[in-house]
């Protein structure tokens, strides 16, 4: 499978619901594509992504955009253990400072 085919598959599933229906892979870019794939793709999609992209690139996007998001603790635990070979427990993610949470906290004060 190609990056374009995987993007189209996810787009047809409605994963990019908050973006224009005319969104293309080129417009989205690899970072947004991989972020949404990590968050909302199914297991088979993840397997394909790791064949299409270097593991280090996927891990970097995960660390930048997903790892500290408390809404995805179970997903982060699975990604860390199965795909990145990390020996961690869910407490690891609970203790990470969330940039998103800190921004929300700043707006409410």
What does this structure look like?
- The chain is mainly alpha-helical and 109 residues long.
- It has two domains: 1-65, no CATH class; 67-109, no CATH class.
- Helices cover 67% and strands 0% of the residues.
- It is built from seven helices and no strands.
- It is globular and about 35 Å long.
- The model has no long low-confidence stretch (mean pLDDT 88).
Brief write-up:
The protein has 2 domains: 1-65, no CATH class; 67-109, no CATH class.
Structural class: mainly alpha
From N to C, what is the helix and strand string?
A: HHHHHHH
Please state the CA-atom Rg, rounded to the nearest Å: 15 Å
For the sheet with most strands, the description reads: none
Q: Number of domains in the coordinates? A: 2
Instruction: Report the end-to-end length measured between terminal Cα atoms.
Output: 48 Å
* Average pLDDT: 88
Number of helices: 7
The rough form would be described as globular
Low-confidence stretches: none
Helical content band = 55-70%
Q: Care to count the β-strands?
A: 0
State the oligomer: single chain
Strand content: under 5%
